[in-house]
Design a protein that fits this description.
alpha/beta, 23 helices, six-stranded mixed sheet, 600 residues, four-stranded antiparallel sheet
């Protein structure tokens, strides 16, 4: 069983690595550049030890120093150091450009998917956790790749070149190094296999912590109002403690990797030094030729031993460096899994073969069934006919399905069964962008971006002129307070611009009035507006509703007395429908609901 789990994790990591490589393909030039400059860097780095090995052999004793050769080798060594530094700088430029472009593309893909995912995904995930995936997790991927890619190029090149040179110098000692080096890899593999799970848990807990902090900061007034600061802090401390425990465990075990491999490599270097010293002594005693049984080797000088010790260190160093960034790479893979979960989320089906040239607004709902969760019963076999130009009010107690009905009309959620048609055309066959343009919607929660007032009013109609924007603002009774802002319509809505909830909602109403859609949906559109302004807005609404099919979700029944039809919902079904006068005559559910608001 454990073997299957381990195999699954390995496959997951390999799959994530292959997935990340697909984002590298557009930037093959940087990959080639990184390969070339890493080869040059490794080459110049490895030529240096050979040169100072020659310099050492040029100083074999008192009065036996070849100064000319020493000068040339020292000069060549200095040139190699400078060229290696230049190659490393260019390698860094290529790797940085590659990684930052890859991360930019990854973040763009994640954000574009968030603008395309179904509303169900947004409703079922904490906003803080989603933000953490797009921002924090992508940054973690960037940090891991910046270290990992550079070490990959230079490390592989160093290992390959040094092992070839060591075999040329003395293949016996080189063979010893190659045989012992896997001990370092075994130690690193043994430790790092146990860290991936910890890092996967760590990034999930980080997402929960960010989500909680965002919720508490966003609802700070409510927290203070109900004196729940202590509970908020306790919950934060609980998640933070969990993050500390898992983070400490992940960092502790991953931190063991580097010193463990360094210890093994130090043992290898010591073994090479002792063996090389023995060869040097034997070479001096035999006059420059080593005879080991049937093997005959050329002389092994002190300069060669110096080169070999340097190369042994160069050979083992990449293993240390690679294991040093394993922590970042494991963390990067864990974060990549979370980011790809967003990217792989199913998007909305925006395709459609039918178009409605002139929308009249005939809405027909037949045998509609819907529930948010499997096994839950909410709307069952719902039927409704709305003639074009009708003003339809939807009322009922909390949780009766009013907002759900609006979500279904807007295709925010898909029906489990049944159909919704507009002018006789199945809504599912109309391209989604065109379908939603048929509706203008004002929600109870106002959305305003950090742009100018004019931009926010024209949101959804970018080609609107200033005159059209101002006319919509006047119709929504928000022109007067806009002109009192520091830059009027050009005021950027930041935290320094103090707008009340009612003023923010008026701007959203102006936005819909400017769009001038063929159908309207008002979901408690005047809930944050004072009574006097509401009366004016209702007058403006009545004007733009003329000839348009309109749906009004209302709790204040006094605002929908003139509706052509009132749908009274309860438990996901329409229990009554008719005009206000008709429903009052029946003295049924609506009668009780109305009197509960106006009873003296």
């Amino acid at each position: 069983m454990k073997q299957k789990v381990r195999s699954g994790k390995n496959q997951l990591r390999r799959g994530l690595a292959r997935r990340l490589l697909t984002y590298v393909r557009p930037y093959k030039g940087y990959v080639v550049g990184a390969f070339v400059f890493s080869l040059l860097y490794v080459g110049f780095t490895l030529v240096g030890p050979v040169l100072y090995g020659f310099a050492i052999d040029s100083m074999i004793g008192a009065g036996q120093v070849d100064f000319t050769r020493v000068y040339y080798t020292v000069g060549g060594f200095a040139a190699c150091v400078l060229l290696a530094a230049l190659s490393q700088k260019l390698l860094g430029n290529c790797v940085n450009s590659l990684c930052y472009r890859l991360v930019r593309d990854l973040r763009r893909c994640a954000f574009e998917k968030l603008t395309d995912v179904r509303i169900r995904y947004v409703d079922s995930h904490a906003q803080g956790d989603v933000m953490a995936r797009v921002v924090n997790d992508v940054d973690i991927i960037s940090d891991g790749l910046l270290q990992g890619v550079a070490q990959l190029f230079t490390g592989v090149m160093t290992i390959l070149v040094t092992i070839v040179v060591m075999f040329v110098i003395n293949y016996i000692i080189a063979l010893v190094v190659v045989v012992l080096t896997p001990l370092s890899l075994f130690v690193a593999s043994f430790i790092t296999k146990r860290t991936f799970k910890s890092f996967s848990i760590q990034v999930k807990v980080q997402g929960r912590l960010i989500a909680h902090a965002k919720e508490m900061i966003g609802g700070q007034k409510t927290v203070i109002l109900f004196n729940e600061e202590e509970y908020s802090c306790r919950k934060f401390e609980k998640i933070d403690t969990e993050l500390y425990d898992i983070g400490w465990r992940a960092q502790y075990y991953s931190a063991l990797t580097n010193p463990s491999t360094r210890f093994v490599n130090a043992v290898i270097t010591a073994f090479v030094g002792v063996l090389g010293a023995v060869f040097c002594t034997m070479s001096l005693q035999s006059g420059g030729v080593l005879e080991l049984g049937a093997l005959t080797l050329s002389g092994f000088t002190v300069g060669m031993l110096s080169v070999f010790l340097s190369y042994t260190n160069q050979y083992t160093k990449p293993f240390n460096e690679i294991t040093n960034v394993v922590t970042q790479l494991q963390n990067a893979f864990a974060s990549a899994a979370r980011v790809f979960e967003v990217i792989d989320e199913e998007g909305e089906n925006k395709a459609g073969e039918n178009r409605i040239a002139h929308v009249r607004g005939d809405i027909c709902i037949r045998d509609a069934c819907f529930s948010y969760e499997e096994g839950q019963r909410l709307i069952e076999h719902f039927n409704l006919d709305v003639p074009a130009g009708s003003k339809v009010a939807i009322v009922g107690p909390t949780g009766c399905g009013k907002t759900t009905l609006i979500n279904l009309l807007m295709r925010f959620y898909a029906l489990r069964s049944g159909t919704i048609t507009v002018d006789g055309v199945d809504a599912r066959t109309v391209p989604l962008d065109e379908y939603r343009k048929m509706f203008g919607m004002v929600l109870q929660e106002s959305f305003l971006a950090g742009e100018t007032v004019a931009w926010n009013i024209a949101y959804g109609k970018e080609d609107a002129t200033r005159a059209e924007i101002e006319a919509a603002a006047k119709a929504a009774y928000c022109d007067f307070f806009i002109r009192n802002l520091p830059q009027g319509y050009d005021t950027v809505l930041t935290s320094n611009v103090n707008l009340s909830q009612g003023e923010r909602q008026l701007l959203c109403i102006a936005r819909v009035m400017l769009a001038d859609p063929p159908m309207l949906i008002l979901d408690e559109a005047t809930s944050n507006i004072d009574t006097m302004t509401e009366m004016r807005i209702q007058k403006a609404f009545r004007k733009i509703m003329q000839g348009r099919t309109s749906f009004i979700v209302a709790h204040r029944l006094s605002t929908i007395l003139d509706a052509d039809v009132i749908l009274v919902m309860n438990h996901g079904s329409v229990v009554e429908q008719g005009t206000h006068a008709q429903l009052m005559e029946r003295k049924g559910f609506y009668y009780d609901l109305y009197n509960s608001q106006f009873a003296k």
